[in-house]
Amino acid sequence: MNILGLYKKEIKSYFNSPIAYLVVLFFVLFCNVYFLFFNQFIARNVASLRGFFALIPLVFIILIPSITMRSWAEEKKVGTEELLLTLPLTNWELVLGKFLSSLTLLAIMLGMTLFVPITLSTLGHFERGQIIGEYLGAFLLGAAALSIGQFISSITSNQISAYIFGVVGLLFITLIGEVAVLLNPAGALSRIFTHLSFTFHFGSFKKGLVDTRGLLYFLLIIFYFLYLNVKVINLRK
After folding, report:
1. Which residue stretches of the chain have pLDDT < 70?
2. What is the model's pLDDT at position 172?
3. d(CA 84, CA 88)
4. Helix/strand/coil for 184
5. Using only C-alpha atoms, what is the Rg of the chain?
6. Between the CA atoms of 202, 205, 210 and 212, what dihedral angle is there, to the nearest 10 degrees?
7. Which pLDDT does position 170 carry in this prediction?
8. How far apart are CA 153 and CA 66, in angstroms?
9. pLDDT at position 44, please?
10. Rounded to 5 degrees, what angle do the CA atoms 213, 217, 220 make?
11. Maximum CA pair distance of the chain?
12. How far apart are CA 99 and CA 38, in angstroms?
């Protein structure tokens, strides 16, 4: 089995269980409910999805761990981890195979919401660059969250623990900036925590602006936690 074979296996396992369908359904329903009941698009007469994307970090705290909780924890539960680790694949290929499959599910989730700007474009003019920036930011944010969730799954013993610790971990890194500002508004530590938080770096993306600092931040988070995942697999071998 090569990395492509592992990728296909992981994709099939997602869609052979209700997880993928429930996650996509929940995300699409959230999108619909928001624009039907909470969005003031028509009242303001402003073509903007900024309010929707502002909620994405909080939604991902709940949804992303449900995608990644089974990544490695399920392998341990059913006893296939040892078989997986004996495949002629490097540790990086094992980790990337799982990560790319979850990334595909994330892309499907976001792609299913594209009907919103397409539909609402009849009510106002959307800036194409702004929409691209917002979706790029959501994708990078989700990818970073997936890397964290996958790492947590590799160090936990079951899916429930992986989900709970995944939620806690994402909640921490998402909101640590706001908490730090409230506790110590003038301190250097609060500024450090703020620059480490998801919400700070996602802020420009939700406005449709592609910030190179935010782009680099999310890419570093992805690489760092995938690297930690590789180290955990190396220890298991």
Report:
1. 1, 35-48, 120-126, 179-187
2. 92
3. 9
4. coil
5. 19
6. 0
7. 95
8. 11
9. 54
10. 140
11. 59
12. 33
Task: Give the per-residue pLDDT at 131.
Answer: 83
For residue 193, the model assigns a pLDDT of 79
Q: Which residue matches tokens 């900036």?
A: 177
Q: How far is it, in rounded angstroms, from Cα 197 to Cα 209?
A: 18
DSSP 37: I
Q: Which of 212, 40, 189 is nearest to 120 (CA)?
A: 40
Nearest to 226 by CA among 62, 105, 61, 103: 103
User: Tell me: the pLDDT tens digits for 213-222?
Assistant: 999 999 999 9
Q: Can you read off the two tokens belonging to residue 78?
A: 């059913």
**Which residue is associated with the tokens 């921490």?**
172
Residue 32: both structure tokens together = 């619909």
**Contact call for residues 199 and 177 (beta carbons, < 8 A):** yes
